Amino acid sequence: MRATKISGLAPLFVLFIAGAVSSFEDIEKLRIWPLPAEVSHGGRRMYLSEDFKLVTEGSKYEDPSGILKEGFDRMLAVVRLSHVVSGHRNSSSSGGSALLEGLHVIISSSTDELEYGADESYKLVVASREKPYAQLEAKSVYGALHGLQTFSQLCHFNMKKKVIEILMTPWNITDQPRFSYRGLLIDTSRHYLPLPVMKNVIDSMTYTKLNVLHWHIVDTQSFPLEIPSYPKLWNGAYSPTQRYTFEDAAEIVNYAGRRGIHVLAEIDVPGHALSWGKGYPSLWPSKNCQEPLDVSSDFTFKISARSLSLNLSTWEVTKLKKHRKTEAEAYEYFVLRAQKIASSHGYEIINWEETFNNFGNKLNPKTAWYWSCWESDCGRCIMSNQDKWYLDHIDTPWQMFYANEPFEMIKDEKRQSLVLGGEVCMWGEHIDASDIQQTIWPRAAAAAERLWTPYTKLAENPDKVTTRLAHFRCLLNERGVAAAPLVGGGRVAPFEPGSCLAQ
Amino acid sequence: MRATKISGLAPLFVLFIAGAVSSFEDIEKLRIWPLPAEVSHGGRRMYLSEDFKLVTEGSKYEDPSGILKEGFDRMLAVVRLSHVVSGHRNSSSSGGSALLEGLHVIISSSTDELEYGADESYKLVVASREKPYAQLEAKSVYGALHGLQTFSQLCHFNMKKKVIEILMTPWNITDQPRFSYRGLLIDTSRHYLPLPVMKNVIDSMTYTKLNVLHWHIVDTQSFPLEIPSYPKLWNGAYSPTQRYTFEDAAEIVNYAGRRGIHVLAEIDVPGHALSWGKGYPSLWPSKNCQEPLDVSSDFTFKISARSLSLNLSTWEVTKLKKHRKTEAEAYEYFVLRAQKIASSHGYEIINWEETFNNFGNKLNPKTAWYWSCWESDCGRCIMSNQDKWYLDHIDTPWQMFYANEPFEMIKDEKRQSLVLGGEVCMWGEHIDASDIQQTIWPRAAAAAERLWTPYTKLAENPDKVTTRLAHFRCLLNERGVAAAPLVGGGRVAPFEPGSCLAQ
User: Fold this and answer.
1) Is A274 within 8 Å of A220 (Cβ atoms)?
2) Mutation to test the A interface, candidates B158, B241, B486, most A Cβ within 10 Å
């Protein structure tokens, strides 16, 4: 809808036309992913000045460690990545064109501590003619980073004038996530993932506003993490260089944190832990039984506790799998004791659902669960059902990721309020640096919209968002993310020549 | 072999031990890809100073546009990419350890013009105890860039000390390519490749010392390039944004050029040119016959000439395909006339071999050919046979790429001297931003060694270089290049959990 000036009727007409985007067809023209909570736009055009500035007057937030400035610079770099901006737009040359001189960011909280559950909302206005600055308001710097992300998706390259422009201004966007936990699991035990690959994954997460990187670090096959107090543990790595030093792990957490992403570091015990014994064979019950670890041994608890005390992140996951039914009691004993240890280090606890299914009533009542169980009243839950949200299931098409609704089976409002969010899982049996990004994207983006966008704005029929998701997939490609075609399941090669938008 | 000090015998013993690497087993421990012409090493270790410097005293080359400095900075960035360098090594803290303070680069030519056939040789010495600087000598800055690349592959991260080290010093490397034309073809007509993707490909080419990017820009399916004098031509693109502005194309050429890579821009006429008519329908012979272009029309030649005059690079390829036998004469007429036009713009000419097979004796005698024909005396040739060097044939394993020897069927020395080199081809029917790099690598690397390394140093049985190629593939992953596992053909997903080095 365009805003037009009609003498004598202008105020009324403008109010009438430049209203909220309400029809589904309008939404689908918006090309923003995930869809914001509330969006309205006009019909004008503005160009970004080649000296596009960040202005923070009036902001309580002083950007002590440069998180905002870096985010702003990254945003500008990414909108200028896919074509050379050779046209000139600045205050002297703009003439009659509407020039956007910069972005005015106002953040009300002065802290940059990344706390789970903190306010991620933002308001973005781009922009009125009187004010040649876009306006971004947020409670926290992490809300502001989400606002910058949305702003970047409004920017387009004008192929004729060769400048960055924003169409359909003025934009008025008010946005906040539906769920606070929006996660992606990656697995560095089945295949080692070098640091640049992990950073590429983290950057691509920010494009879809995912905010939890669940790092499944070790498992049966390899133990690639340095634990300073038990230096032989990482002898369980595939090779000396396929490992993360303590500083590498801290770098990952820091890189993610500065982008508003929590890192949930997961270390499995006592099952899935064969690789621990490569450096410390006494952890194995015997030479012939190397899994699970020996839960009758205090050493097992000592080493688990030390691993948990690495203090990489706020949450730790104790993933506990049952070995055999005859050891049910040993399993329960281990889990309860491990929970106590974790709790004593100040951690929140998340378990996989098997523990709930087996002895849920004995667990720490504050436990949250990775959950695919619909019927049980399991308290705080994070949806992660393998039939729909496991990315390694490459037969699962993006439509199923999009349609996977946490509240589909939960009608009770109180139980709904206990759903923290959800997580897509990129298990690593067939995933390494060569194919991880095309297996994650764009299907994880489909899930990301399910977790961010208000329920009423989501499409009932996923096929209705095909065009918008295709545009987003092509945007990912333009940003150097190897997102696969939409057609087919996961990581299918394009099956014929054609436009990115049609594949 | 280690260099050891034995009093009274030191000079003789050192000479004896630190000799040239001669046995194949020694070569395979070197972990350098492609293998240099001459290599010797010792048994010591040096650490890179955290203030590792570039020094150019005595060099005739003044680095007018920063090509050397940028190359040096890129080299340092890439060796520090995969782990956090948290240990400290500088002149004050090195104690007894051998510290490498920097790299002394001496270049004898003052020009930085990238000319085909220019000297790409270099000499690298790392380093004697007396001189805490590695020494790199080259005739041209592009030879020096190759030397920097080799230097980067000597660098390893010490997981214990957490610094960059070089093992087996002193190194003495003398190197130059076997062939001057070492190419990779990419195809941006079947699928548009965004600029960041092309830059990633160019960077990965430098790691294997490939030096020609054969850019197959347009074809039947799309015309994505801006031709300023015929602005409607790029209406044949898939969409407005899936296009390269003139500045984008110049940026690609510049980005590659600063890395020592020639860009060979290819525009096919009169066949494979349906997309031209989207903007200029009069180029089509009729509504029902849209390919090839109408060779009876002067407009066809005018528009072809203008396209060739873009001056993006020194060479242009006129790829001419026959449509039907009844038009053989029209085809020959077009090719000869097009060659004249190209020649008049100062271009060298390369044709695909069909023209040679059809009317080779009438062609410009300076023509070179993309060639898979073994028997004919076709003059200057660039090997590019589809049964072994087409990367889109994903059933072709890396061993076949490695083993494809230009001189296998040519025993006559004079004909051997006319072989300029070779090129692997990444045709784009099933290739886009999501899967291009895992389809190119590591198989293109196998071909790159065939084109760089002296014939006598190549393995007769490709399986002998498996370990060294696996290490190189993992190095590519650590540098953010999505190189696929070695096992299987092209772009196979890893089929089980395991070490990068074993897949």
Assistant:
1) yes
2) B241
